[in-house]
Amino acid sequence: PQVGTDLTDLPLRRRVTVRELGGCMGPIWASYYRDCGAVLFMIDAANPTQVAASCVQLLSVLCAAPLAAVPVLVLFNKIDLPCYMSLAEMKSLLRMQDIVSCATQPITVLETSARDGTGLADVLQWLQATL
């Protein structure tokens, strides 16, 4: 689990700075919304007990006025683990179809494995196309 904040610079077409905020930092997320050009929201697809909490946090992000037009990438991570839920299961549990249809911002969903790199090229491609 991510605790605290981390900054990472990505050398895309132009330099992009990614600020990583752990889920436990949810209460202070809003203080970073003003400078945000995109949101990458990562959900642990191998931990079904956290799905409800992740959904609440995602809805909070989507409802924030400063993020009303900011593109959102929802990442279902840890697909390399044998206990991960499939994309269809995760979308169903989170009611992603309803969330996407009600959101004011564009939402994209991808599966990733930060451990083995699966899907990370798609994330970088999304970032380049979005920013």
TrEMBL record:
GTP binds at G23, N77, K78, I79, D80. Keywords: GTP-binding, Nucleotide-binding. It comes from the Eukaryota. GO terms for molecular function: GTP binding; GTPase activity. This is ARL16 protein. It comes from Crypturellus undulatus.
